[in-house]
Amino acid sequence: MVLQLRRGAVHPVGIENSHPASFRDPSGVVFRAEDGTLYRQVNRVYERDYRRLMDSGLYERLVSEGMLIEHHEVDRSLAIDGSAYCVIQPCPIPMISYPYEWCFTALKNAALLTLQIQKCALDYGMSLKDASAFNVQFIGTTPVLIDTLSFEEYEDGHPWVAYGQFCRHFLAPLALMSKVDMRLNRLASVHLDGIPLDIASRMLPLSSRFRFGLSMHLHLQARFVKAYSDTSKAADVDVTQRKLAKGKQLALLENLVNTVQKLHIGKRRTEWADYYQDHSYSHEAFEQKRTIVKDFIERVGPQTVWDLGANTGEFSRIAAQSGARVYAFDVDPACVEAGFRYCLESGIQNLLPLCMDLTNPSPALGWAQMERQSLTERGPADLVLSLALVHHLAISNNVPFELIVQYLHQLSRNLIIEFVPKSDPQVKRLLRSRKDIFDHYSQEYFEAAFQRQYAILDRTQVGEDGRLLYLMTSDNTCA
Amino acid sequence: MLMNLAYIDPGTGAIVLQILVAAILGIGVVFRRIFIAPFAALFGRSSKSEGTAGDPDSPDSPSPQA
Hints:
By secondary structure, chain A is of the alpha/beta class. Chain A has helices at residues 47-55, 58-64, 104-123, 163-179, 197-203, 212-229, 231-235, 246-261, 275-278, 283-300, 314-321, 333-346, 390-396, 401-411, 425-432, 443-450, and strands at 28-32, 38-43, 71-74, 84-90, 126-128, 136-139, 142-145, 151-153, 304-308, 325-330, 351-355, 383-386, 414-419, 455-462, 467-473. Chain B has 1 helix and no strands. Chain B has one helix at 11-42. Helix content of chain B is 48%, strand content 0%. The interface between A and B is large, with 49 and 35 residues.
């Protein structure tokens, strides 16, 4: 990556310009310069560990194997205060996603990455001081550690300080998704420092107690954490005197790897996972829809696409083929899981399926609601795909067209949207069990509502049931 | 009573526990070497599959799990 720093465009900035999630670690601070570039200041207190990371060959090894984010050292004068040792510029992550949005396999691969990095670090005399799932990000479906400053010198015989955090951030949610319900990934949005092990232990079925890894790392640890949370008891223990030989730590890590690898999700289906097999499109109409969507995408030529209500990502993949970076959102973790696995198996590098309930999208979370961004804050995308979605929002959730338009307009200025009329079998199904109070659910009202924000560039009918595909924009320069 | 005191000291329990688990894993390896490996060898199983430490050379990179 060639650094193109515009001198003069970047000024030293105060703590108020530092990234709101960057206050915890005194090793350094992430900040955004005025030109929008993300930098990371490495503080002098971390100099020794940083040099060891860079000089021991660990950094090179991890970066060459794609496990750690690459960075470049830049001019130290960019530092935001006097405590800087150096300033680095990490390769940018296209869009941040959070563990509560990941499907099972995504979280599992992030967990395995973290363990692999810890094993690798021990070889080079270093150790991870953090094992937070938030330190892992996805580029496509590939997990990468983004926290360059989470390595510290390994002191011989010291236990792994991040062991408890690893269990809360990875093992507990994985076990819950595997043994209880896939939808429990969302529990991580309530417990940002990982699922408390006592909660996980009580939720897990009895059978999990007969699995060595889960019984030790979750159930027994939950008891230990509770027992030692009594300060008088914890005061009797000098943790700095507790030793764990390196070989034993490696065996512990290997056991964690095995425990994680043995967790699976079965073929339990949720409501949408088999949508493409039994929905109302005929084969010909489906092919026609694909062709039209492909044509619309090419006309917009987007760099980033958000596919809302993506199901397993059939149309996200068409967008991905155009070379755009695509995020496929769906409420059903089974669909997201299927889409994620499809990408892994077919080697698609520019598509990330994520779990998202569009009627309640990820909010801003954490300290002062500044640490984790809401979905809207992570936009806008160049193009939003909203196929076979509007009837779910308008009828199942009673959201008026006007409000749907308002929200979609926040997410993107370009829109490929499908209107599904009341005569459609899918809509009839939605209306079967409820009173039809949706007098305004018609093509006429739909178009009127959307034309308040967008210009309709194209409208094409798909199939025999009166479904319509629209290409809309509010960007005068587009298409 | 379900009062959660973990916010006072979440760290000590995890440290003490991991040392205990590592010790149990160590005992497991010894047990397998003494009691299981000889029989495994007798029935023609490779001694490579013994123990919990696995094969250090095997690529354990993240991969899709069916």
